[in-house]
Every structure is written in C-alpha cells, then in structure tokens.
Amino acid sequence: MRVFVIAGEASGDKLGAALMAGLKQLAEVEFQGVGGPLMQAEGLDSLFPMDELSVMGIAEILPKYRHLMRRINQTAEAVIAAQPDVLITIDSPDFSLRVARRVKAASDIRTVHYVAPTVWAWRAGRAQKMAKVIDHVLALFPFEPPYMEAAGMECDFVGHPVVAERVASVGEAGAFRAEQGLGDAPVLLVLPGSRRGEVSRLAPVFGDVLRRVVAERPDIRPVIPTTGNVTDLVRSAVADWPVVPLVLDPRGTDPVEYKRQKAAAFAAADAALAASGTVSLELAAADTPMVIAYDMNWISRQIIGRMLKVDTVTLVNLVSDTRTVPEFIGKDCQPGPIAEAVLQVLDDPGDQRAAMQTTMERLGKGGEAPGLRAAKAVLKGLQAGA
C-alpha cells in the first residue's frame, strides 16, 4: 500500500508519526509526503522541510505567500505523480486543503483529513467547502462525526492524542517538588500560552491575578512551563510579579527530560491558570483543576464573538458536557473575577475532577491508541471504497 501523508506543524508531525506506526502494524506500507522528525523516524523521506509550513497569522504568511504557493503546487504534483492509494492530510488546513483541491481536480485519489475543523464552534460553512475535496475525516472529539457526515464526508472518531501521553506518578510529582524546593506549598501552574502574542496579552493580566491571589495565599508558588520560543518573553513579563515564578526552560535540556519535568510539574500542581486551548486537556489528563482565561485584540474579539456557536470554549467543559471549569474569555478576562475563581478552585475544585475523568474516558483513555485507531479507520475506508 502506498500512502502520501502531509503534516505542516509539530502537532501534526506527532499525529502523523502515530498514524504511520499504526499503519505499519497493520499492512505493508510505503510512505511519501511532508513531515517533521517524528514522521521521518517512522520512514518518511520528507519532500521538503516541514518547518517551511509552520507559519501563522497574516503578517507572517504574506512575505512567504509565493513560496508557500509553490510548495502547494509542488506537493500536489508529487501526489498526482505518485498515484498513492490514499492522500492523508493532517490539520494545517490552509496548506492541506489547497493541496487536496488540486489533487482532486486531476485525479480520483482518495483523500483523508486528520483533525476535523471546529465547525461546532464557529464557521460551520467550512465543512461544506471541505467536503468538495475530502472523502474521509479522522476526528479527535466524539461529538464531531455528525457535523462532518452532515456535510457529506465519512468520519470516524479515533481518539485524542492526549490520552496516549504519559502522566507523571505521585512519586515523580513529589520528586519534582523536592528538586525545585517547593516543599508542601500550594503550587499554581501559570500557563499564558505558547505564542508570543498570547504571552504579551495575557501575562500582565495573569500577573495581576497572581498579585490578588498572593494577598490571600502568601504561600503560593507559581510555576510556568514554557516553550523555547517564548521563554525570554515570559522571563521579562514576570520580572515585576509579586512572586517570582519558577520558569521551566526547555532550551539546553534534553527534550525527553524536559517532557518528564513538565509532566511532573502538571502532576505536582494544586491548580492551574491557563490560556484557552488544548492545554486544558493536558491538565485534565494530569487531574489538575483549572481556571481558563483568554483575550484577543478588539477586532478579533468582535468578529469571533459574533461567530461563536457554543457557550464555552473550554474543551473539558465541551467534552464532558458540563460547565465545571470556570472560564473568562474576551471582555470577561479581568483580574478580579479570575483571582476569585483561582482561590475558589484552590480551596475546592468542586466537580472538576469528575468532569476531567469523564473527558479522558470520552477521548479514548483506556482503549486502543489513537494512532492505531486512526490507521484502522483509514484501512476500513480504503476497503469500503475498493
């Protein structure tokens, strides 16, 4: 079997590698495509470096637009020339779906897209547009298949990769506290995002929240795991915070060791204040109660606020079908109410732990690994279409 697989960023590389490993368990497979180091370790010879596609935002994309269009055309031509049994595109829809459109215009190659668009939250029309070039969708969330099927695509829920992540043990959490001199103090994870714009916008708010929390709980110890691209920005932003946080810096640290350290920090924390996003699922996996807060620029706030179709953006709330995780989004991202919520969660997480457990179960914890489930779904689709 010949598979052409495309990923455009680190999260997609991770999904792709797990899918490739699953396919290799089930069939004799030849891979072509675009991917990062994890996919390459599974046998992919990348058409070009994946990091050429890892750009976000209009300001970043515009200077590289012509180059990206050349890469789109190059990739589509490579797919058509290879005539694989299936083209699998992973997330990165601006790149992936443009490639799929060109492939479908010139062939009948089966197309699979891994990671459903969030049409349940906003811009529902994306599903109909996607259905013109995608045959089959692999969904991360159990409530997504009906949206994709209604638009005319096959869709399988294959589980979220967070359920396959290793969670630190109680012993590892205790060792982290001892190594970092935290003792028995209450630990608050502070997670202002992994993008520079997020950190710049949220760090001042989170600092003000911490100032109010410390006034009530002077023994609190904040910990901030960072990504290398924002570590210096984080250090600068927290310099005037009332308590200097422990900043975990991945630079110069073995990636496996840093991953272990970060997991131990999540497990050691009593609570977390986090930007909205998939980090809420990482916290749920670690059984760490949380408060979610997020803001954006005024224009984005107005546009997205009018387009949102859900009353919560926190994934734990959505997957568990509860509203137990407090969230403060947009104009509600104010230090006073956020601090009150953090203090309340530190004192009593309420029903959060039950909601987090439900979330993990519904995302596939305890079942087959998501990569293997995704591989089986791909093969099932190929056999049904044969």
TrEMBL record:
<keyword id="KW-0443">Lipid metabolism</keyword>
<protein>
    <recommendedName>
        <fullName>Lipid-A-disaccharide synthase</fullName>
        <ecNumber>2.4.1.182</ecNumber>
    </recommendedName>
</protein>
<dbReference type="GO" id="GO:0008915">
    <property type="term" value="F:lipid-A-disaccharide synthase activity"/>
</dbReference>
<keyword id="KW-0444">Lipid biosynthesis</keyword>
<keyword id="KW-0441">Lipid A biosynthesis</keyword>
<dbReference type="InterPro" id="IPR003835">
    <property type="entry name" value="Glyco_trans_19"/>
</dbReference>
<keyword id="KW-0328">Glycosyltransferase</keyword>
<comment type="similarity">
    <text>Belongs to the LpxB family.</text>
</comment>
<dbReference type="Pfam" id="PF02684">
    <property type="entry name" value="LpxB"/>
</dbReference>
<keyword id="KW-0808">Transferase</keyword>
<comment type="function">
    <text>Condensation of UDP-2,3-diacylglucosamine and 2,3-diacylglucosamine-1-phosphate to form lipid A disaccharide, a precursor of lipid A, a phosphorylated glycolipid that anchors the lipopolysaccharide to the outer membrane of the cell.</text>
</comment>
